[in-house]
Amino acid sequence: MLIKENDDRLQELAKELGNSEEYRIIRKYKKPEYYHSSSSSSTDIKKFVGAFLDIEATGLSKNKDKLIELGIVKFEYSEDGRIFKILNEFHSYQDPKIPIPEFISKLTGIDDAMVRDQNVDTVKLSKYLEDVNLIIAHNSEFDRAFFETTFPTLKPYAWACSMRDVDWKNEGIGSLKLDYIAYQYNFFYTGHRSISDCLASIHILSRNLPVSKTLVLKSIIDKANKLRFKLWATNAPYHTKELLKARGYRWNMENGSKHRAWAVEITEDNIETEIEYLRSEIYNGILNIDLDLINAYSRFTDKYVTDDIKYQDKIDWVDKLIR
Fold it and tell me: 300 and 158 in contact (C-beta within 8 Å)?
């Protein structure tokens, strides 16, 4: 009884403080039973299964570091961005066979003893992902790299990114860190553990963006469905590097990459404008660029190549723009 009375009193205080412009109430995350109910009126809505994935690793290098924890939470959603309910979870530790750095243990709470002799069951993982239509991570470039390096026999999946597929800056959110975004949505959680990060991320996906009022998941789905081109500004003049960097190009020099060059991903609807920019501002009329076609299955990875035959008309169109 005392616990309920204390809780009621805290709720009253939170409401009172929230009504003042001098305070902001940030609540602890609580897993909801559902976000949108699957009532009889929605039985005709086509539903899909999404999976939010989070990986903890010994460091940032996909070539040197190793996965130590994998967490995935599945959820049910529709094309308009509504999340209906959270489904089951998959969690496992993985022995990296190398010592976990002290700063990683302090950050994640995972130490050598917790992962010793632990291994992700690839058969169970594959079975778990059978019905998944889209995998989302908060920095998919990192998570997909470790995922595919650790589980090279799994089939390719469609991927999206809650960090890069939302224009957080123009929505008034100035940091891409997950805990900061959660704070902007007035909740907090225990971070840097895979399942808690996944649940917090899904909670964010269920919300409306502050400025556009679009559902976060809808924004991500729209970006994931767009065909993209990766433009490689090969042999770009050295003095243009700051221009390229300011425009969002990143220097790529990973072993095994197609080029050591500045590169950027451009959606189909922006490709013509970008090619003209390169022609006039970087190459002074004579283009020296290469490109790759990218869809949701080949994003954030160099392991899978988009089927060029399927998109031959798009390739021909861009080839004409480059000439």
Answer: no
DSSP conformation class of 117: T
Query: Which one of 3.20.20.100, 2.40.110.10, 1.10.40.30, 3.30.420.10 gives the CATH number of domain 26-224?
Result: 3.30.420.10
- The β-bridge partners of 53 are 72
Domain boundaries, the chain: 26-224, 228-322
Residue corresponding to tokens 């959270």: 86
74 HSE (CA, 13 A, CB side): 16
Return all residues near 68 (Cβ < 8 A) that are at least 6 apart. Answer: 56, 57, 58, 93, 94, 95, 96, 100, 104, 108, 110, 115
pTM of the prediction? 0.89
**Residues 187, 28 contacting (CB under 8 angstroms):** yes
pLDDT at 40: 45
Q: Which two tokens mark 23?
A: 């305070």
